[in-house]
Each structure stands twice: as structure tokens, then as C-alpha cells.
Amino acid sequence: MQVSGKVLVCDSIDQAGIDSMKRAGLAVDYKPEIKPAELVSSVKDYDVIVVRSKTKVTKEVVDAAARAKIIARVGVGLDNVDVKAAEAKKIRIINAPEAASTAVAELAIGLMISLARSIPRADAETKKGNWIKNDLMGTQLSGKYLGIVGVGNIGRNVGRLAKALRMNLIGYDPYPINREFISETGMIVTDLNTLLESADFVTCHVPATPETKHMFNAERFAKMKPTAYLINTSRGEIIDENALYEALKNGKIASAALDVFEVEPPTNKQLLSLPNLICMPHVGAQTKEAQELASTVIAEKVIQTLRGVI
Ligand code: NAD
């Protein structure tokens, strides 16, 4: 069954979803470079607004979206959408919560190994002609305790991969954790402070909420082992970056790897200058497979919603 309507795609998304929406009968305007002012002035003409993470769907945008039926986020978090404003106007919000979970989990494992074996530094120094072998005593992952903070889709995927590396899992989540996952992996479920005191590696997979803002602060870093490694591929706001700077500089923890920052691109020059910090430009979901899946899942949900099926 064909559907009708106009779709505005505001961020760059995989072509597969655009093609599906067009095949279903939708008129799709692809404007990945659209500026906030143009979005506010043109959004009134569209039934569906599709964004990734760059475009902010503010209250102003929602208020101007006179005929919008759907706001679609090609990804997980809805922190760039004013959900309250959209719900007040009865606009459906859809997202693709599981599409990126394999990609982000693989990046978290990659960062963990990069920290344990100083891969970025080793690469940079070798290419400069410096043979720093004696400085590069690493740490094995096998047998170590991995603390997973937030045991949702991505946290569980990281856990399964870490089990294959023969790590022991400790988990903290204020909500019930999937029972099958616990029995499959032998995860020890505990409170956050115990996890921080016990883990050799800590990986964060929580949403950005008022409760998680700066959940990693000076007090929490003080609880961690001085040999601990921290990985954050979730949201920048969960870490107090000034406290992380002090913790890394003063040896409260060994090193950290961040895919996400409080402000993106990051502006905290002091933090970025540290040798025991690995930085990535928010690329957790940036694989061909994850982007194609997210785009096709969103296209299908848009079509089914307009058909009234879901
Ligand atoms: P999810 O909803 O499946 O899992 C999040 C888990 O965090 C849930 O189990 C929830 O109960 C738990 N949680 C909520 N509040 C908590 C708290 N205060 N303390 C501990 N746990 C808490 O989400 P997901 O798909 O696993 O995504 C996790 C995070 O990864 C999100 O922040 C998401 O935005 C981020 N993400 C990042 C990228 C990237 O490019 N780096 C890509 C996709 C997702």
C-alpha cells in the first residue's frame, strides 16, 4: 500500500532508508546541511522530520511544524529532540534503539584494548622513528574485572564480547537487568560504588538524563582503582570533564578513552592535552552496517506509522 506525505531529512543518513520511503510513495527532501533558521521557516511544509544527532529539534522547530505527524531519530538517544513539546502536539516520536548497539559495543572493546596496550601512542611514536618498546608494558584483559555501568542493549553487547575475551563482568543498573544475560555471562550485579571500587575497566552505557549528569565526578573517581581504565561511548554529560582531568593528571585512575564529550567538538584543551587520554569524534555508530540498519529501520517505521499499522 502506497503512502503520501512530505519528508524532510535534516542530517546525513544512509541512502537505503531514503530509497525505501520514496518507493512507498513519500516525497523526500534530503537537506543534510540545513541551518536552524531554514529549518524553522520550512518545517511547516512537512509531515515527517528525520534527524540524526546534529539537528536540534527545539520547541521553536516543533511549534513551527504545523502539519508534522512524526519526528524520526535515526539512532538511539532523543536528547536532541524536545520530546515534551512534540508530545504536547501529539507528534509521534520514533527512533531505532538497537541499530547501533553492535557498532558501539565493538568500539568500546576497541578502546579498551587501545588503553590496555597504548595502541595510539605506540603507533604515533613508531611512525616518528622512536622505538619505545620498553615503555609499553601493557595489561591483559583476560581474567580482569570489567564494570559495566548501564546494562541495556549496548552494555549487554559489550558484556558478551568481553566474556569472549575471558573477562569477568560486574554490572550496575538501577533498573532490572535481563535475567538470561546474567545467567549466560555470570555477571555480578552490584551497586555503583562497589563496581567502581572493584573494576579494572569501567565502561559506561547510560542515557543522558538529569540523574546521570556528572555521575562520574571527583567523588566517584576517588573510589576507582589507581590502575583503572575508563571508557565512555555513551554521552559526554555523564562525566565531569574537569574532575576527569584532575583524576587522570593526579593518577586517581590510569587512563581513559572518550568517544563523546560535554561539548562536541570538545573545547576542554586542558583535558585533550593529557597523554593518558584517547579521544574519538563521536563515531560509536559510524559503521556502514549500523547506519544502513538505522536508516532502513526508521524508513520502515515511518511508512508503517503513516499506514496506521504501528
Ligand atoms: P539502553 O536504553 O538500551 O540502555 C541504557 C541502560 O542504562 C538501561 O539499562 C538503563 O536502565 C540504564 N540506566 C539508566 N539510568 C541509569 C543510571 N542512572 N545508572 C546506571 N544505569 C542507568 O540504551 P543503549 O542503546 O544501550 O545506549 C546506551 C547509551 O549509548 C546511550 O546514552 C546512547 O545515547 C549512547 N549511544 C552512543 C552512540 C555513539 O555514537 N557513541 C551510539 C548509540 C548510542
Verbal overview:
With 310 residues, this protein is α/β, with parallel strands linked by helices. Helix content is 38%, strand content 15%. It is built from 13 helices and 12 strands. It has helices spanning 15-23, 36-42, 59-64, 83-88, 101-117, 119-127, 153-164, 179-185, 192-198, 218-223, 241-249, 269-272, 288-307; strands spanning 6-9, 27-30, 48-51, 70-73, 92-95, 145-149, 168-172, 188-189, 201-204, 229-232, 255-258, 277-279. Strand 6, helix 7 and strand 7 form a beta-alpha-beta unit. Helix 5 (101-117) crosses helix 7 (153-164). It starts with 5 loop residues before the first strand and ends with a helix. Nicotinamide-adenine-dinucleotide (NAD) binds next to helix 5 and helix 7.
Query: How large is the share of residues in beta strands?
Result: 15-25%
Residues in helix, %: 25-40%
The value of Rg in angstroms is: 21 Å
Globally, the shape reads elongated
Strand element count: 12
Q: Taking strands numbered 1, 2, ... along the chain, how are they ordered across the largest sheet? A: 8-7-6-9-10-11-12
H/E element order: EHEHEHEHEHHEHEHEHEHEHEHEH
Summarize the structure.
The protein has 310 residues and is α/β, with parallel strands linked by helices.
What is the fold's blueprint, element by element?
Elements: E1 6-9, H1 15-23, E2 27-30, H2 36-42, E3 48-51, H3 59-64, E4 70-73, H4 83-88, E5 92-95, H5 101-117, H6 119-127, E6 145-149, H7 153-164, E7 168-172, H8 179-185, E8 188-189, H9 192-198, E9 201-204, H10 218-223, E10 229-232, H11 241-249, E11 255-258, H12 269-272, E12 277-279, H13 288-307
Parallel strand pairs: 1-2, 1-3, 3-4, 4-5, 6-7, 6-9, 7-8, 9-10, 10-11, 11-12
The structure holds nicotinamide-adenine-dinucleotide.
The site of nicotinamide-adenine-dinucleotide has 32 residues, from helix 5 and helix 7.
